[in-house]
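Page 37, top half.
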Amino acid sequence: MAASSWKGFITFGLISVPIRLFPAARFSHIRFHEVHKKCGHRVQQQLYCPHDEEVVRRDEIVMGYETEDGKMIIVDPAELKAIVPQSSTEMQILQFAKLDEVDPIYFETSYFAVPEEAGRRAYALILGTMQQMKIAAIARVTMHQRDRTLIVRPYEQGLTVHTMYYPDDIHEAPGYGKDSKPQNRQELSLAEQFAKSLIKPFRPTEFHDGYQARIRQLIEDKSKGKSVLRVEKGKKLAPVIDLMSALKKSLANEKSANGKSQKSARPPRQRKSA
């Protein structure tokens, strides 16, 4: 069984529910090591100071913050450790809110909250209340030596916990959101038609990481001494100038593709017996 990431209590007024948090999702990819091409052994990285032209030991490292005027403020790891908050065992519900009021951009890491045996009734009560009212909880906890704000929400008959970014963590991108309104009604109408033709239920199992699959195949082929096949690159794209023409062709291609798929899905006609 996977190890839990946090153990403590969800508190709801005077109700406390013992729970454990388990990672709900984790990026999965094939890990490579950096190796010496000459001999195939793993290399070791060293810390090097270009000013003194020497390799630096780990115990000689401190933290530095560079100010706008280029001055380096030196901070010792012991000084940082002295102000780190102690991880708490209480996840306190501060308020409830409609989930659609929370923009997904604030969501960071997801966890499954699993109740301990002694807290199952209270856990079910909180879950049932949130399901009935269609609300999520905003909670606070000190976890992994950081003060965290959390979203707690019902998900598939259980409570899922999401750590959240703070507003200061959300960055700005130059030009984002400017000149984004469509000006041509005909173009907008055609774009809506094309979008409607692509609407279908979302099934996560239909989507896969093809690149990771190709890496696994590459490793398997190389282990067997087979030659490695190269993936053909797609055609280069350029900005579309004639939007109306591009939308009409997109609609025609989608209708043609749907027609072919419907024909292939039909069962063959049975011949009538003479």
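Page 37, bottom half:
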Amino acid sequence: MTRQLNKDTTVCMSLAARPSNFGTRFHNFLYEALGLDYLYKAFTTTDLAGAIGGVRALGIRGCAISMPFKEACIPMVDELDASAKAINSVNTLVNTAGHLKAYNTDYIAIAKLLAQHQVPNDLVFALRGSGGMAKAVVCALKDAGFQNGFIVARNEAAGRRLADLYGFSWQPDMAQVQAGLLINVTPIGMAGGAEAATLAFAEAAIEGAQVIFDVVALPAQTPLIQYAQAHGKQVITGAEVFAIQAVEQFVLYTGVRPNDELFQQAAQFARG
């Protein structure tokens, strides 16, 4: 039976530079399956302060935060959960009677995937990117026991700051870097962008690596993932990251944790 929306329906949403249908399909699938009177909708904005103010003023229960807003929204919230405070990056807002509390479920997803895929922590890693999502990934790597790695970022100030924060090294490019684990935390390869067809790492670097991790969720098969799979590499996809962090958001918004079977069904449906 189709849900009937009404004036009391609880609304959740997302904010991203380039919204996808993944979160919308994932959350609404679970609302339907669990009989919850909720609705989820994706948005973009050029007025972040106005959008966050709207979340508060309109009683939007939850708001997922994606690139490039993960750090910029911090001054606009009332409270940081330890998960967001630890890495100074936000991907989830929960609104309780106008009080906005910020969380970061990206870290949880990264940590779970490193463990599930049994990625050896003695590998040297090269992570491309230096923004809010990169912080979550680097923190998870550090906590998983990785000791040797490079932050590869054209922005020297941001790259060095992130590398120094966790005791790794910064490089402006891959020229002096050899790594067994490659991680893309940039929009390179993202559908709809100027670099949608671009490999996030050079072919030689991919061929020389053991594990390839792309946090870009749209498409699930980015050029990097496709090339890595064609060369027999172990891969971790952004779609996996998105699904795990999204279910943690779902729990924060609703107080309900779907069982694993329902989670897998929602993730499959969201990939469409």
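Margin note: The two ends are 21 Å apart (CA to CA).
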